[in-house]
Structure formats: C-alpha cells, structure tokens
Amino acid sequence: MRWIDEYRKKRVTADKAVKVVQSGDWVEYGFGICAANELDAALARRKDELHDVKIRCTIGAYPHHTLDIDPENEHFCWNSWHTSAAERKYLSRGLYHIPMKFHELPKMTREHFAPIKVFIAMVSPMDKHGYFSWGVGNPSSMAACESAEYVILEVNKNMPRVLGGSQECIHISQVDYVVEGSNPSIPSIPEVEPTDIEKQIAGYIIEGINDGSCIQLGIGGIPSAVGNMIAASDLKDLGVHSEMYVDAFVKMTEAGRITGRHKKLDKYKQVFTFAMGSKALYDFIDDNPGVVSYPVDYVNDPAVIAQLDNFVSINACIEVDLFGQVCAESIGTKHISGTGGQLDFVEGAYKSKGGQSFICMTSTFDDHGVSVSRIKPVLTPGAIVTDPRTAVHMIVTEYGIAKMKGKSTWERAEALISIAHPDFRDELIQAAEEMHIWRRSNKIL
After folding, report:
1. Cβ count near 163 (within 10 Å)
2. Which residue, 304, 300, 389, is CA-closest to 352?
C-alpha cells in the first residue's frame, strides 16, 4: 500500500481535526515540545461550543491558548504532570498538578484514568514507510495513543527524527487525523552558564566518576558544569542513560568521552526519554542512530537503572531538612515543578553496582537581598517531600558531600550541618539539639 495515499486521506485542517472534542472529554497532549500548539489554538476557537474539557499535559512548551481565552476555566481545565517555568503563571489560572513517579506514567495512562477521548502530539514528518517520529518526547506517547479514541498528529518539519529505541514512532495506520502545521521553530532552552559555586559543586561530583560510568543529568548550572568538566577531562568510555537529554551530553560526545562500550543494556547507545535544550542539541539527535529514545517506564524504571553498573545520577533540589528529606518541587505550598524522575534515579542509581546518586544544591539562596540556608531544621511548612530520607544517598553543596545511607539521625544532622553555609551552622546545631538529634560528643563544626 502507498502510505502517502492514506496520509492524504487523513490530512485535514486543525479546525476540522478538533471537531472530535466534545464537552466533558479528557484530551491528552504530547510531552513537552511535542505538545499541541496550533491544534490547541484551534480548540480555543471552539470555546463557546465546549464546557469542561479537561486537558492533560507535561512541561508545556507552548502558549496555553485554551487557558488564555478562558480565564474563568468554565470551558477548559488544564492538568499538568510536571510544571515548566513557562507554565507557572498558569498555576493560579486554571492549571492543576498531577503528582506522579515518572516511571509509572505509561501504566497510569493505560490503567488509572478516565478514558482519553483525544490524544494530540507534534511529530516529525512521515517517512517513506509511513512512520512519524515522536521526536524529543517519548515518555508515554504510545500509551496515550493506545488509550485514546482519536489520535491527531500535528506535523512539524523542525521536529528531530529519532531513529531507535522502542515505541519511538507511530504509523499512519494508527492515526485518525494529520494536520500540517506552519512549522514553527522548536522551542529551545539556552545552555545555563554555571556559576563559580556550581563549578565547585560539580568538582566534588567529578571525583566520583570513573571510566565506564553511566551518566544521568538534568538541566541547569550544575549538570552543565559537570558536562564541561567531563568534556575537558581524560575520562573515557562513559555511557548515557538519562531521563532528559541535554546539551552537556553533546559536549561530552564530541569530546570523545562517551562510547557506551561498558553498558550492560543498550550497549553503545545513548538512551533518553525526552530532550530539551539548544537547536544544536536537536540537530545532534536528528537521524542519529547513536541516540535512541524509549518510553519512561523503561528509562526511569529503578530496576532497569540498577542493571547498569557504576551508574551516576545527578539531580538538583530546593531544600533539605536535618533528617535528610529532600524537597525539589515546591517552596512551601507554592508549586514549582514536580517529582519527575528524581526519585526513580535516586533509588535506581543506589541499587546499581558501584552506583552513586547525588542531590545537588548551593548552600544558600538570595531572597530579596537576604541569604537563606537551603539546609533547614525542618522543611518549610507545606513543602513536598520529593525524596524520603530513607532513599537519599548523597547530598552535595559547595562545602562538600554528605553521605546519608546507613546514618542515624544524629549522624545525618552532623553530616548535613558540615556542608551547610558556616553562617547558619550554629543555629542548625541548636535546632538539632532541640529536636534531640544532636550528641554532645559531636565535634564542633
């Protein structure tokens, strides 16, 4: 069969495609940069015809047209798996958070929700075999596709084409409508220039990375600093198995540090579930057989991560308390992001043979000219515990590494106070004494 003929039959305008959405429906958008853009705008144009349409998204990278046009949220209600910086303005305007552990997302999509009426995703153009690539967003796209009554694709020629992994593409026979968009540029995130303190933190982490280690990085100054240091080092034969693919991996690859030859799974391949970064990153992924995507229930499964020896996981957080609880997703009750895959990698990396899990943060932050400690006696009231104290392996600031595993409460307090900013150590000691997690035999820090 000539797949182009089926493509032509299913090609429609955005306004026609979204006619399948009815009041009360659940509509799922593709992940991050693969979310609906022009189709969401078309859905917004139907506002007066619709009521209580519920939309689910993850790290929305485009304007939320349906929220912008409906300030009273009578017609559209957005629900986000993980909030991006650009989305935070919507948190008081009709955007709600769905807590999750990231590796469970496909299972939850298939089993634990009201049925998805429509799934909409932005994809790369169809190839000669009839396949569209999910591009830079593969976490749960196929799960949503399998669960939906209607599947609509928004084609963008600028979406990278990912060649391999698993469930990284969808065939025209699985699609109901195809909409050819205006091909806007894919949203990019400029690489963050690390500060001197972030470089100092990265220096502690680099000391624990060996030849053949398998790396997971997030986004931000510390991962960028780690990537730069690895690229400039003499480390060799590193592997990549990362929820998020970022520019640091491109630098490490081009410097010859990554081969994947020691990986027990996906040998020689760099594995990710979604990518966000610069245009150079997207160009690097495009048609690159060495960089492959899998659904998040594979990439982030702690049991899978644990099979990769010498795994090094590097993530960031907002604050830590003296018991070792980590908050990475809220400031008190103010929502910031989500659990994402942090807990997945904290647990998986620790169970890896020779594995190390680092949670990184600067010891303080500036709050309107006032220095505030990120290490606190207890978490800010209302703060969400992203990583329970039982799971945390190592916490890093510019003052060193605090190893948490196997330590009693007073040992944890001592270790964490030793990496707190010196200006706050006395008051942290006093708080620890009041909470009965401090021993008089402790050395003065």
Report:
1. 17
2. 304
Start-to-end Cα distance in the chain: 74
Task: For 168-199, write each residue's pLDDT tens digit.
Answer: 999 999 999 999 989 999 999 887 788 999 99
- DSSP assignment, residue 189? -
Please give the pLDDT value at position 84.
83
Decide if 213 contacts 353 (C-beta within 8 A).
no
**Spatial contact of 138 and 119, defined as CB atoms under 8 Å apart:** no
Residues with Cβ within 8 Å of residue 16, at least 6 apart in sequence: 177
Neighbours of 117 (CB within 10 A): 19
What pTM, to 2 d.p., does this model score? 0.94
DSSP conformation class of 387: B
Return the structure tokens found at 198. 């972030």
**How far apart, in whole angstroms, are the C-alpha atoms of residue 229 and residue 130?**
42
- Asked if 139 and 273 touch (Cβ cutoff 8 Å), the reply is yes
Write the DSSP string, 62-112. S--HHHHT-TT-SSEEEEESS--GGGGGGTTTTEEE----GGGHHHHHHHS
Contact status, residue 275 vs residue 282, Cβ threshold 8 Å: yes
HSE value, Cβ hemisphere, 13 Å, CA-based, for 119? 24
Beta bridge partners of 29: 120
74 pLDDT exceeds 70? yes
What is the per-residue pLDDT for 113? 73
pLDDT tens digits, 338-367: 999 999 999 999 999 999 999 999 999 999
| Residues marked as catalytic | 243
Q: What is the DSSP string of 176-234?
A: SEEEE---PPPP--PPPPPPHHHHHHHHHHHTT--TT-EEEE-SSHHHHHHHHHHHHS-
